[in-house]
Amino acid sequence: MSGRLLVASTGGHLEQLHRLEPRLRPTADRVAYATFEDQQSSSLLAGREVHYVPRIPPRGAKQALVTLPQAFRILKSGQFSSVVSTGSAIAIPFFTAARSLGIECHYVESSARVEGPSLTGRMMTKVPGVHLYAQYERWAERPWAYQGSVFDSFTRDSAVRPSGAGINRVVVTLGTMRGYPYRRAVDAVQRVLAEVAATDVSVLWQVGDTPVADLGLDGRFLVPAADLSAAIRDSDLVFAHAGVGSCLQILDAGRCPVLLPRVAARGEHIDDHQWMIADELHGRGLAVSRDADALTAGDALEARSKGVIAVTAPPFSLHTGHRSVPSSGSEDVAA
Hints:
Largest sheet: 7 strands, parallel
Shape: globular
Number of helices: 11
């Protein structure tokens, strides 16, 4: 009997792993998750076997060490023959424990990493026996393999929607990462909606840590996943930061979003990886990407005219057996 433990931080990492799960080959007889406990994981993994661990923030080395004993207890049960993770730092204690116990490990780099691996991904290249996967073929060189992307499940709808007709329902979703407000996006959306939307437009503001009380908006830190998905499906236009989880949720609903990537230099995120996501989706014709300060009415109308359809993505094959030791050339890829 084969058991597989799926390990991911909440947010985009968990969303990606959950979507990749049915594509993973070979299949496993038993599948469980290890993640943080919050509204997203409780909703997304309802009815599933889940091991909750203390939250590990980005680059939280100390918190990762604290989680190591719990990772050992979970994996020493003998119920799991493989561990798969999409990151981020939560992969470190679980892979450390798994490899010391001789358990097979697979690290799938986030689709946010368009040009190369993250810090966690680079660390994984140093762990013997970990199989590594990129979600972009253009940088998938040894030791990284390419088996596909979460975005393979979508393509642009060839039908053209009326760009300026009836913008009555709008969704704005800016994620829930604490400590990183994104007021520029709120101000930009308000400015553009005054030009393109109906006077009685209904707007759902999911603003995370962004303060909006002075604007008189009904801003919500988090909207339950099911409620947010329903609102997006019923919307005429969607604005979002370029978080992977938000993007996937919007594409699921058949909407082409206006993406407003956060900028690290403005204190909106820890780095500029959202620009990589936005550029990738813009290039695929699945989104319209713009810096918040440069957002125009034309961007909103362009997104309104486009749609997205779901397609069947191919299986994601996990390698088995010992991973080759990285060559000197692969160090350049991981740097």
